[in-house]
Amino acid sequence: MPASLAAVTDATPQPAAAAWRPGVPRRVLVGALLAALLLAGALALVLAGGSRHPVASVHRGSRAVARARATSSAPAVSAATGSGGAAARAAKAVEVRDPQESSSYPAPASVHHAAAATPSKAGEAIVAAGAPSDAEVRAELRQMQAAERSARLQQSRRLAPVPGGRSIGGNGTIPIPPNVPQAVQRVIAGANAITDFPYVFGGGHASFVDNAYDCSASVSYALAAGGLIGAPETSGELESWGAPGPGRYITVLANAGHTYMYVAGMLYDTAGRSGVYASRWQVGSVDNSGFVARHWPGL
């Protein structure tokens, strides 16, 4: 073919070549961007989840531990003696047999004593307190001095031992000191109210109002008259009554089987009496070995 014809034939317009641009193709770039966004989102969720759940778990765990500690450390509280709840009181309700029962002159079945009054009623036999005028104060001071002299004289007469035991003579009661706290006066008044009642093991535990009292019921009755106990307690329960150690006015001595107390320096004990109706107030003191000393705070 002639060169001129070839030139004419080759002159047919050809499609323009796509311009070359450096870099990644657009579809690849968009795909990579979407993948990066998805990855970033997933990573953010993972990081957020990892930082949130452990903290919440720790908080929940801390609250659980706090609740557990509070539950385990919460003490059981009783109404009057601080010595356990209802279940604990029921578990300790059975009193150990008094090892000094034989020396407490236990009453035979033929003895029938009249029932006692309530401790609160017995505790009313105390020196009355009031707010007198100056003239009344001076008059009361004179009366108090006379009463103290009379009380010392009566005490010297009443506190003489009677033959056959260490019991108090006379009517078995002791004078109520005017210079001690009112609660102590009431305790003495309560003790006086049942001082000559017979001793029967278990007596006075079903109710404060009874016609015979064992060692722990006798102490409980007197303490109740002073408002220091709410229900009869056994000797074992009195080991945790009040606060540890001896008191200034009242000291209760207790172990699993026996209990007694000192009130204003006088021994109040069922053991060592000289007869069925002999006084619980005793002359002198006894060996306190093996007994726990308790007192009411402030007394």
Main features:
299 residues; 7% strand; 6 strands; disordered N terminus
Q: How would you sum up this structure, described in words?
A:
- By secondary structure, this protein is of the alpha+beta class.
- Helix content is 39%, strand content 7%.
- It contains eight helices and six strands, in the order H-H-H-H-H-H-H-H-E-E-E-E-E-E.
- Strand 2 and strand 3 (259-263) form a beta hairpin.
- Helix 6 packs across helix 7 (215-225).
- The radius of gyration is 45 Å and the shape is elongated.
- The chain starts with a helix and ends with a strand.
- 31% of the residues are buried.
CATH structural class of the domain at 115-295: Alpha Beta
How are the strands ordered across the major sheet? 1-6-2-3-4-5
Task: Determine the structural class based on helices, strands and strand pairing.
Answer: alpha+beta
- Strand fraction: 5-15%
Shape type: elongated
CATH topology of the domain at 115-295: endopeptidase fold (from Nostoc punctiforme)
Mean residue pLDDT: 73
Quaternary organization: single chain
First and last CA, distance: 142 Å
> N-to-C SSE series?
HHHHHHHHEEEEEE
Provide the fold topology.
Layout: H1 3-9, H2 26-73, H3 86-91, H4 119-122, H5 134-158, H6 182-193, H7 215-225, H8 235-238, E1 243-244, E2 250-254, E3 259-263, E4 266-268, E5 281-282, E6 292-295
Antiparallel strand pairs: 1-6, 2-3, 2-6, 3-4, 4-5
Helix pairs in contact: 6-7
Describe the structure in brief.
The protein is of the alpha+beta class and 299 residues long. It has helices at 3-9, 26-73, 86-91, 119-122, 134-158, 182-193, 215-225, 235-238, and strands spanning 243-244, 250-254, 259-263, 266-268, 281-282, 292-295. The chain is 39% helix and 7% strand.
